Amino acid sequence: MNRGCPDFQATCRMTRRSLLRVGAAGLSSLTLPGLLRASSGGDGRPSPARNVIFLHQFGGPSHIDTFDLKPDAPSGIRGEFAPIASAVPGVNVCEHLPNFAGVLDKVAQVRSVHHRMKNHNSASYYSLTGHAPPLDDIRLRDTQELFPSYGSVVSKLRPSDDPAIPSFVSYPHVLRDGSVTPGQHASFLGKPYDPFFIAQDPSDPGFRLPELELPESTPLGRLEDRRGLLELIDRQASLLEYDATARGIDDFYGRALSMLASPRVKRAFDLGEEPDSLRDRYGRTTYGQSCLLARRLVEAGVRFVTVYFSRTIGGNGANGWDTHQDNFNDLKDRLLPITDQTVPTLIRDLDARGLLDETLVVWMGEFGRGPRIGDRDGKGRNHWPSCYTVLFAGGGTTGGAVFGSSDRIGAYPDTDPVPLERIGATMYHALGIDPATEVHDRLNRPLPIAADRAITEIFS
User: Fold this and answer.
1) What was the pLDDT predicted at 209?
2) pLDDT tens readout for residues 350-393
3) What is the DSSP code (8-state) at residue 170?
4) Check: CATH 3.40.720.10 for 48-202+269-458?
5) Which superkingdom, per the lineage (predicted)?
6) Cα→Cα distances 378→61, 113, 320, Å
7) Closest C-alpha to 106, from 341, 308, 345, 285
8) Helices 226-235 & 249-260, crossing angle to 10 degrees?
9) Which helix (H) or strand (E) segment is 363 a member of?
10) Mean pLDDT throughout 139-152?
């Protein structure tokens, strides 16, 4: 080989980490293109992630009061909370996130995410699909022309290995700001790729899924009769957030039958199998038990789990993260204690069970909060999509990494700006799905599942 040729030079630039990634197969078994793919860290790499837990914080968490504090900013911008040291030298977090500080060496932060949507419905649709909405308006309505949710795309391209296990599960809220927020289901991909949606509160002592329970008068054998199954689901439709017609019962027939017959599915939803001590560590809140359930679901083989933190059943987290008023007390007394108890516990639990390497955890809202204090009651912060922070843990990402930065007041990206489109591309990349993969809409037009490239810089 000519030592001056680009291919040879590219091969020589392979780092030790790239060589280790090649693994036991040995260099002799790989062709030059294979070596180049291994060194690139691109979509040709072996995928470490099998599952995603997507923690969507509806309302918009304040990035400059949590993970990207600006203690040297001027009065009127600088928040009330002090920074504390974390497990990553030189990287601080808010004083009300001490447990998060202890796991930050397992978390990759992206501090320069940005877009232009200022309303909850349009911004949330953007953050749930990775595609910009046609307009920034609270009146944005769900239509079959809008893009499907991340989980629906994964359900189509990387379904669960066991047909009885749903590929995509979401709970325990339907996001809405006036109207229902678009981007929570499969849209033009079709009803078979909608999430298995749970409207019950996992923190309720009597939590169970009635839709997975058979009436005593209905033996399993009768469900082989299509009519019997449809009658059963029709009788239970009132238990679901979406009624039988909206969910497209014909498309769900085979899946419903296999789920009803599967002890593995029922066990996955049985939080009573967990020790009380672990349930206490997660927190006996809607969010805490929802995140514990997410761990059980990916352990059972569910490919994509979306947990919505929103207007919470039972009062834990009412109004989500929309801190227009009393921002600091709301964070200190309500939002940060729940978050600091639950999310670090989830990360530690996944790690202890050997699941963190194969499970990508994503924590994000639809935007951040404005740098200037004083919205509405003089103590709040307004919506701010121009710069905010997204967290990744596991799934092959580099713990302790910080990618991108905001300016001195947290208003705009300063280095490595990250368009919101790259977040979805990063999730797909972690699962080994090329973000350039195309799906077809109702007019059979080919559309890429992501509109930008993955943040490969945060992967090991």
Assistant:
1) 74
2) 999 999 999 999 999 999 999 999 998 999 999 999 999 999 99
3) E
4) yes
5) Bacteria
6) 18, 26, 20
7) 345
8) 90
9) strand 359-365
10) 93
